[in-house]
Amino acid sequence: MATQIKSFGKSRMTIGSCSEFHNNALDLITQTTPAELHIEALEPAYSQAVGQLAGIVNRQRAYISTAQLADTDKVRDNAVGTISSVVIAYQTTPVEDKRQAAMLLDPQLAAYKGIRKHEYSKETAEIKGMLGVLQAEENQAAVTLLGLDAEVTALAEANAAFEAAFLGKAQEKSTRMDVEDLDSEQVVDQANALYDQIVQTVNAYAIVQPTDELLAFINDLNGIVGIYADIVDGTTSGGSTPDGSDPEPTPEPEPGGGDEDEGGSPL
């Protein structure tokens, strides 16, 4: 009877196990060479599908820039809050020149009340408008008199840093677009279908034109198939259960309570 590649329940594997199985199969194909296995036409598409599958399994779920955006947004929110609070507070000061400075700025800043609660991009645009008011030549003396020069500078720097982080997130997203657009189920089905075509081809040549290299490939692949078949069936030993969770620890027997002459405290 001709040596053949065995089949198993690939569709029952987790996506992580499926990816590793196909990686191992592709490694064997590369070692033996597609030409020796008569699958030159199938190997490029299979290799691409295996790569896409690995990309899905290992794709990053969070953005590095998300934390940077949150931290920078907090800085600019604090600056906006401080500036607004100072302007409001000085409207009731007994020091007339400071009261006049606050009264000059307050109506111009009224449009920016509550902007800290707005979504990121809207707040960015509004802070630019707020900075336009605070940095206007006719308002410079009032800003300085209220001691807000440092806060205005800090707000401008924080808003610029936020814009840079926002663009950084856009760049992160663009680099992941190819992987994020992939449908996991479709990629798994594609990898499995291409693998099945490879198996059919190799098995056919094992009957009509067997070679030592081809038969060795089949034997090696069957070893891998056997391991993953055990994983699917839940018979592989190890530190985890088939679903990837840790096994339940064996409970320690409680002392006493066994025979009638044994037990806990006689009290």
Fold topology:
Layout: H1 15-32, H2 34-37, H3 43-57, H4 64-89, H5 96-109, H6 120-134, H7 140-145, H8 149-180, H9 184-208, H10 212-233
Helix pairs in contact: 1-3, 1-9, 1-10, 3-9, 4-5, 4-8, 6-8
Region (Disordered): 235-267
Protein name: Cell surface protein
Biased composition (Low complexity): 235-244
Number of domains: 2
Write down the Rg.
34 Å
Total number of strands: 0
So how many helices?
A: 10
Structural class: mainly alpha
Separation of termini?
Answer: 75 Å
For the sheet with most strands, the description reads:
none
Task: Output mean pLDDT.
Answer: 85
Give the fraction of residues assigned to helices: 55-70%
Low-pLDDT sequence parts? 237-251, 253-267
- H-E string: HHHHHHHHHH
Percentage beta strand: under 5%
Describe the global form: rod-shaped
Explained architecture:
The protein is built from ten helices and no strands. The protein has two domains: 10-60 and 179-233, no CATH class; 64-176, no CATH class. The protein is mostly helical and 267 residues long. The longest helix is centred in the middle third of the chain and has 32 residues, at 149-180. It has helices spanning 15-32, 34-37, 43-57, 64-89, 96-109, 120-134, 140-145, 149-180, 184-208, 212-233.
